[in-house]
Amino acid sequence: MxxxxxxxxxxxxxxxxxxxxxxxxxxxxxxxTARRLAQAGYAPRVPVICIxxxxxxxxxxxxxxxxxxxxxxxxxxxxxxxxxxxxGTARGPLRVDAVRHGAAKVGDEPLLLAAFAPTWVAxxxxxxxxxxxGAGAQVILMDDGFQNPAVRSSLAVVVVDAARGFxxxxxxxxxxxxxxxxxxxxxxxLVLAVGGAEAQARFRAVWGAAVRVxxxxxxxxxxxxxxxxxxxxxxxxxxxxxxxxxxxxxxxLGAEVVRGEALADHSPLAEALLRRLAAEAAAMGAQLVxxxxxxxxxxxxxxxxxxxxxxxxxxxxxxxxxxxLARLGLLSGP
Length: 334
Known about the structure:
Elements: H1 17-37, E1 48-52, H2 61-74, E2 79-83, E3 94-95, H3 103-106, H4 108-113, E4 119-121, H5 125-134, E5 139-143, E6 155-161, H6 181-185, E7 190-194, H7 197-207, E8 215-222, E9 233-238, H8 243-252, E10 256-262, H9 271-283, E11 287-291, H10 292-295, E12 307-309, E13 311-315, H11 319-327
């Protein structure tokens, strides 16, 4: 997973010298994406909702997939999820079994998703969708794949980190974009911005004019598990797109974060690494804590030794999403 350089997230009106120098390579990257998207994809027999993004790295797609899966399942629909399985070795299509499969085989996100709905790992997304159809899916959530033409989606939701927006507005390697904002949003049906009120206001101020489809705001909220974080000394570690946000969240809950270890996204949690972190935590009188996604990669012997902070996406107003789902015949009534 790409570790974003700082200049990728510069003000789009002042991208910086390096971004301008790399711009021609970004144009070539965008052209390659456009050529790939021109290919014809599989036409599924059931509605497929693609949850993707425009930037390299994470934008909060997994919480969106979980929120949509719960909302659709609550209406009695059989929901399946198809994921590429980043970080795993399985090529698939393979239905994830949390008892038999580990993160090394299927990836951390599919393990997390499989607790909420039948989840398939497939490098060939069309094969994954066909497998889900054959297993009785009435609606399929495709985790990522917005720039992959293998499957024709019925609804495309672009997820964006409200705090970072679309970065400096340039394509890789000049910026974080997989394709230009205007080009990508022309294929989107909805934009879902994830972040707090301040981040949402900044996103609207910087990017509002570029977004011409309905925009939904959501924020991550810590799930109440009975854990009181106030005054708890913790050594936090995370291999997600934005580890610093995780550390800040813990501090906001009142925890004393004695140190935060930022790992690469989907980074394997090797025994040597965990032993080092555990020894450091013990020396400082701190408790190890990580994210729910990282916890899926913990070896079984370590799961009782590391606390997990669980968050869920809260949607401020579901009506634009519900309207789009109703148009697909997936929702009816209040």
